[in-house]
């Protein structure tokens, strides 16, 4: 399972957790403006917006899980197993719209679009194909959140076509499809950050017997639907200062509300999903912050500290070993 969220203070932040039972060996990858993308069907793009994000680099190609571009548009792919369905690639002369392989979707949008509005235009004239990157890396069943500082959308390619939904909460998890996730929030209309009031039944006076009962009724399990509700509540009620350190700290607390601890979620015999990494990107400044399961110290990579006019990928391996800061020795 994975969870993605957006957060706005003075700047706009976007990030995700990646929950899985193993890691592909992903890295922070910066794609500078002149790295040439040779898309499977859509031709070459030689010069484009620069990107920073988390990617598995295969044969020199950044297979992005999540990224933002230098214009402040961000995107993340999350598992959508059982519901994602992609198109068969058609010969070029049989289609008028762009064909984009699912593994190219993030670079295809982020190299060319500065805003969600521009992304929508691309989405209106494209088909997402199930083309695999390689035999070793078969097609991933994903859906995506795309966001800028003003709005957020979800893209789901399903049997009945490509869906683009407004995402008023700026949150995405996995299954079921996004409209069902949103609908489920209706079941929590009565939840509040305040102490509960006794409204259960007129004849029964119930007592708020402890402090700190805000959010009473929010689910706490690790299912996708529950994480959606939990993180939506946390994000939408979040209060933090406007400054960078305060905003980033708060962002990690928002996603921390759906952190997965090893042992709580068995996916196959003896294999447990954990939160491998959590990211938070300042989309205005192009800074990618992250923590890993064993490294809670926030680490950051700034795209603008690199030569963004280069044509070579720039990669930083994840610092995944945590350190204890001793105070008395
Ligand atoms: C496993 C992850 C989802 C985590 C998640 O949601 N776990 C909950 C499972 S569940 O919800 O409980 O079922 C997803 C998220 C992004 C994916 C990569 C996207 C690029 C590339 C696309 C290629 O086509 C195949 C290889 C490729 C590197 C992909 C590998 C893998 O698929 C990644 C890491």
UniProtKB/TrEMBL annotation:
<dbReference type="GO" id="GO:0006629">
    <property type="term" value="P:lipid metabolic process"/>
</dbReference>
<comment type="pathway">
    <text>Lipid metabolism; bile acid biosynthesis.</text>
</comment>
<protein>
    <recommendedName>
        <fullName>choloylglycine hydrolase</fullName>
        <ecNumber>3.5.1.24</ecNumber>
    </recommendedName>
</protein>
<dbReference type="Pfam" id="PF02275">
    <property type="entry name" value="CBAH"/>
</dbReference>
<comment type="similarity">
    <text>Belongs to the peptidase C59 family.</text>
</comment>
<dbReference type="InterPro" id="IPR052193">
    <property type="entry name" value="Peptidase_C59"/>
</dbReference>
<keyword id="KW-0443">Lipid metabolism</keyword>
<feature type="domain" description="Choloylglycine hydrolase/NAAA C-terminal">
    <location>
        <begin position="2"/>
        <end position="316"/>
    </location>
</feature>
<dbReference type="GO" id="GO:0045302">
    <property type="term" value="F:choloylglycine hydrolase activity"/>
</dbReference>
<dbReference type="InterPro" id="IPR029055">
    <property type="entry name" value="Ntn_hydrolases_N"/>
</dbReference>
<dbReference type="InterPro" id="IPR047711">
    <property type="entry name" value="CBAH"/>
</dbReference>
<dbReference type="InterPro" id="IPR029132">
    <property type="entry name" value="CBAH/NAAA_C"/>
</dbReference>
<keyword id="KW-0378">Hydrolase</keyword>
